[in-house]
Structure formats: structure tokens, C-alpha cells
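Sample 1 of the test manifest.
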Amino acid sequence: MIDRPIALDAMGGDHAPSATVDGACRAVRDGINVVLVGDEKVLRRRIPKGVDIEIIHASEVVGMDEAPSSAVRSKKDASVRVAARAVAEGRASAVVSFGNTGALMAASLMELGRIDGVERPAVIATLPRSDDGQVVILDLGANVDCKPSHLAQFGVMGSVFAQNVLGLSQPRVGILSNGEEEGKGNEQVRAAIPVLAKMPIQFVGPVEPADALRGGCEVVVCDGFVGNVMLKSMEASIEIAGKVLREEILRRPGAKLGAKLLTGAFQRYRTRTSAGAVGGAFLLGVKGTVLVGHGRADEWAVNAAIHRAYVAVQQDLTGDIGNAISVALAAVEPTDT
Amino acid sequence: MIDRPIALDAMGGDHAPSATVDGACRAVRDGINVVLVGDEKVLRRRIPKGVDIEIIHASEVVGMDEAPSSAVRSKKDASVRVAARAVAEGRASAVVSFGNTGALMAASLMELGRIDGVERPAVIATLPRSDDGQVVILDLGANVDCKPSHLAQFGVMGSVFAQNVLGLSQPRVGILSNGEEEGKGNEQVRAAIPVLAKMPIQFVGPVEPADALRGGCEVVVCDGFVGNVMLKSMEASIEIAGKVLREEILRRPGAKLGAKLLTGAFQRYRTRTSAGAVGGAFLLGVKGTVLVGHGRADEWAVNAAIHRAYVAVQQDLTGDIGNAISVALAAVEPTDT
């Protein structure tokens, strides 16, 4: 067991504080040290007898509808900010939040700060691949307009993530593009390719979305605008696919029996194709482990996210990213000066 | 019946010339006038007796692996170029090709030219919406980096397309973004919003991929890089969704019967979720009707595409786009000068 607890923003998320407290209690029973951050009175009531879980009181909350940066700046005692501060002060090993994503990013930047050499932190998540492998993609929305150096750093951070958290030894890193031939890609992609090629990673060049999802690489680099569009298009398509298939099943009289038999298959389908199933996204590039949970998380998803943050801390994800970024900077410096 | 035939590049596509000739013969039997463009000897052999179909001989072909622009420029007698030329010369009413997309675009620009006032032609396709409606999206790959004026013209062309071809009276036009709140979107999107707002269309502002696919608008405007990523992510997700669901069905002993019953449902699912089912994409903004077919098209898809091009010609899609663009230009001019 790690000595310092995982700090959970217990007030964030559509089902907080019930889902957050219940999920945290599950994690504690699994042997993970968790500290709840939020309104002590509210949280205390929810904790069952016999569960040993610490609380750090925070008197404020950032709402889902607030402008993240200004809300976090003005609310020094917001639960998400207090949780990030606990990591900065060495009282906690990681912060996990299911609240406003922008607020978590702002709190992480304010309280933890960027890793030396990282220009822009990025959000990374794991997507299911058709060959049953996994592919990580970054950035998913933190940075909508990116310079080549930002994308190159995403490649380094994504490679470290795939090695440490997914346990892949030689992750292949691709840059998302509209084609793999010479001359394809937009200006940003074409400018980033030679910079990514200099990084100490296994860069495989441009990849199309379908190739990435079929096993063409383990890490996909893109700007946050394109990454967000890709992620949300996938989520929507999978939802539509399930809906259409269900409709077509129910339309056939002979297939109604099949539909009944298939309830369990549909459930497993949803679990396998949902990005939330793998426990949320991480914010990489700040001085601390930050897990960006999905607002809709239930207690099981909260528990899974805490487990995932715990593994990232054990693997020293943040330390390894710091080392990899300084190696990468050293690799490009001779040609830059 | 329209007097001038649809010119089909009979040499383009993975299954050409069998799928193209057979599909064209189907269309002729349906009462549509078609002219085949390609190697006369090869094509003549394939046409069944009793089918009345004209051939325009073209001695060259652009391969899928050739650099489109230079290949089209050097091969004056390439089938795709001869087909486009037939439209430019008034011998045909539309060009349909299932070959190299870049070659079709290059041939259209060279032989037909741009509509006055259109800075960049764009590729548009119809996607299935979860509410069983349809949404059109442009650009899908012709222009990877776009100015605000390009995106505004896409909005006008997309609106005309939704009215004429899909028969929607007041199509709502949105711009693809990573969020609908103030301040979301990348630089390009934020710059295009005020220009789109000036167009004589029903502009509804930024839309996220999921909202567009759930019925938030009928026309989605984006640059060709983002549009291509969205389209291909959707195609890949739908493929993965079908695969995962099939695996989960077959994993359950009790559900094997269900899987058997479901074969037909899966077939309908594929038809409903495939962009190809609606007959390919159009290149808008050139002086002529240009249908960009999918390389994998079989004879049924070829027939569907010819029908779709026929409808577009009947609706005078190209003429209406020309009119709408000149109205739009007049609408913005007073503020520009």
C-alpha cells in the first residue's frame, strides 16, 4: 500500500456525494488509502460505520455551469482545488474528480503547476481497439490549437503513459491525420511530423482514425479540438449503432426471442465500448497524478477510477513523464541551437 | 427522363468495370440515361444484349496509387477526365466516379471549374442520425485548412443541398465544435462563426458531434481535416460496435439461437449505418453535378449513386448553389466595403 492517500473531490459529479463516497468506501475495502475532500458534515453522514476514511474539509464547490478558470481562481476553498492542493503539499498522492473538467484542469495548473519542459498539459484516455488491444489518445480537449512542439510533447507523454499504465513495452506513436500518404494532413500535422520524428519514441507517422482503432498504433497524438471531435463522434456512433441494431432486432417477429436472449450481450457491449469503463482520463504534464473522471460515474466507476489513479502513482507516471520530457528536450536541443 | 445522360467513369473503383457496367445497366433499365466512359473494347464486352447504353472511349486510367493532380494533368484522356469533360461540353448532365477521389476533384476543377464566388469546392455526404433523420456534413477532405469565408460558403452550399436533395424546407446549419458554450472551439471555428451568422441561412452556431447526430441540425460545416476524422471515426466505431456485439452474442451459449435469428437484423443494421448506403458523396461548388462514389461500391451501390446524381440534376442543384452563393455574396458585401 502507498502511504499517502488518493484525494477524491467528493463533491464533483452528477451523482456526488453518494457515488463518490460509496465508490471511495469500496476502494478503501480493496486496501487503497483514500481521503475525501468536501463538506465534512455532508460526507461524514454518508460513510458507513467501520470504514476508516479521512476527510479534508472544503467549504466551496465549483458547479458544472460555472466558467471554470474564474470559478477556481475565486474559490480558494473549492473541493477540487483543495484536493489538488493536498497533492501539491504532499498530503495526498493523486487527485481524482468527477466534476467540471475545466475546473479540475485549472485547479491542477494553479496548485500543482506544469512539469518542467511541458508547455501544455494534455488529457489522455484509453479507447477500445477492434483487435481487443487498447489505444491511448491525447489531447482530448485541453488545447484546441497546438504548435508542433506541443504535439511532440504529447507524443512523449503518451508513450510514457502507454508504457507505465498500460504496460506496453514499445508503444507505437502516430499522429492523427486524414491520410497516410505524402502531402496529406493539415498544416499543423505536416509541421508536427518532423518534430515528432526527432523525439525518443517509436514514431510511426500519420495514422487515420480507422487504422488507429484497428491496431495501427498504441498512442494517437492530435490537438484537443480534433481529439474531442473524434472521441465524441465515436461515443455517438456507438450509441447509434446499439440503438439501430436493437430497433432492427425488435422489428422482426422471429427475433424477439433473440432480443431477450441478448440482454446480457448488450450490457457487455456497453461496458466494452464505453471509454468510462476503463476508468476515466488523465491530465498529463502537471506535477502530480490527476484523474479526470466522467460526470456520470456511479460508485463502480468511482472505485475503478481510484484504482486506476493508484496504479499510476505506483508506476510513478508523473516522475517518468518528467524524466522523458527532459530526455526529449536534450534530444532536440543540439539541432535547435 | 432528362435528355443528357449521366457520365459514368466506368474504369474507376475496386470492382470496375464489372460493378460499374452492371450498375449502369440497372440504372438504364430503371429509365435513366447513362453514358459509360472508358476503354470501349473492355466495356462493350460486358454490356448484355438488348441494353441500350452509349460509350465514350477514354484510353487512359488514373490508378488509386497515383498522385491525383499530376496524374490528371498529364493524362488528358483519363476516363475520369473525359467524363468530366463530357459535362463541361454539355454532352452529359453529371459525372459519377468510384475511382481515386483526388483525381475526380482535380478533373472536375480542370474541366468544369468553380462556380463564380465559390473559393473552394467541398465534399458533402449524408450521415444517419439517431432520430432517423439525416444530417449532411461538409467538407469531408477536399480542404484541410479553411478560412472563415470558405466555411461560410460551405454553409450556404450545404443548406441548398439539404433543401434540394434531401427535401428539407428550413435546414439548420451548425459549425462542428468541441462545445457549444462561449469560448469553446478552436481559432478557425471562432473566426468563422460571425461570418456564418451573416449568411442567408438558418445558422444555429456551434454543434458538438453527438448533438449533430442526435438531431441538433441538418447541416454540419467543418474543415476537411476535421470532417474526414469525424466520418472515418464513425465508420470505424460502427464497425467495432458490430464486431463487439457479435462476439458478445456468440460468447453466450443461450444466445446462439438469437445470433442465428439476428442475421437479417445485422444486415439491415449495416445498410442503415453505412454512408455508402445513401449513394456516395457530392463535390459541391464546381460548374456541374459531381458524385464521388465509394471505391468499394458494388453494382447496387453504383446504381444507387447514378439515381442520386439523376435526382440532383433534376433538382438543378448546381444552378441553385450558384444563385445562393451570389445572394450570399451580396449579403456580406455592404459590410466588407
